[in-house]
């Protein structure tokens, strides 16, 4: 499941418990001026809420923002700030969404959506690729709400950040905790693959091969192809070029059958297939694979692919081509 699909799935789950926030509020007693201001704020909130219900995210964000500006002391202002953040999440403005969730937590620490705001703050920072804030906010949420269903998202998010930062032991521990608490969670597949990567980075070869192998054997696992690719790389690193060739050919065929082709991954697989062929002194086949890969690789790998292709042709006595 890609990032956008995960976000929409999570939003749907959250909304089931939050729509009650849009129930009409009971007017406060007071003088006519206060009552008029309160009613005006209620009306503005209702307009924003209707846009939100109908997934008119841009209009909802504008109305919630205006309501907050016009009625900063209204009883629904904290709700408006929260749903402004939710609307901005749907619009992909993760940086500004995080600011709104942070505002809820700062200005209304006992708000009824405190837990959701704390989670969304970390998720928004994660999607905005703000590594420092994502790790800080997600760790806070996992520490306080580790058994909450939302932690089934927060844990893998945090672990992926730890993995990218080179904190492999912490990442492994976080993945293990998440899988123990949520073995069938919505991001369990991500956690399984990330766990295998952490094991590999820690140099636990046997354990990582077993973890990647388990994933690769599950045809319906969303990371089955990537796991098999990792197994091929391990075989190549071990110098078992023939085994790597066979594994990478299977990966290549799987990518060709995919409903959502990944051109970058396909080129990378063909690059390593070319190197595996070269390791077996299959010079011509290696050169063909590497030349094909070079067309879709980034600059660094393209240069390497060109070098190895030329070297393979030279060794085959075909350097004139």
Structural write-up:
- The protein is an all-alpha fold and 321 residues long.
- Helix content is 75%, strand content 0%.
- The chain has helices at 3-18, 32-53, 57-70, 77-90, 94-107, 114-127, 131-145, 151-164, 168-181, 188-201, 205-216, 224-237, 241-257, 263-279, 283-294, 299-315.
- Helix 5 (94-107) packs antiparallel against helix 6 and helix 12 runs antiparallel to helix 13 (241-257).
- It is elongated and about 85 Å long.
- The model is unreliable at 24-31 and 33-37 (pLDDT under 50).
Global shape: elongated
* End-to-end C-alpha gap: 44 Å
Class from secondary-structure proportions: mainly alpha
Number of β-strand runs? 0
Helix count, DSSP H or I runs of 4 or more residues:
16
In percent, how much strand structure appears in the residues? under 5%
The average pLDDT score comes to 89
User: Which range best describes the helical content: under 10%, 10-25%, 25-40%, 40-55%, 55-70% or over 70%?
Assistant: over 70%
Rg from C-alpha positions?
Answer: 26 Å
- Can you summarize the main beta sheet? none
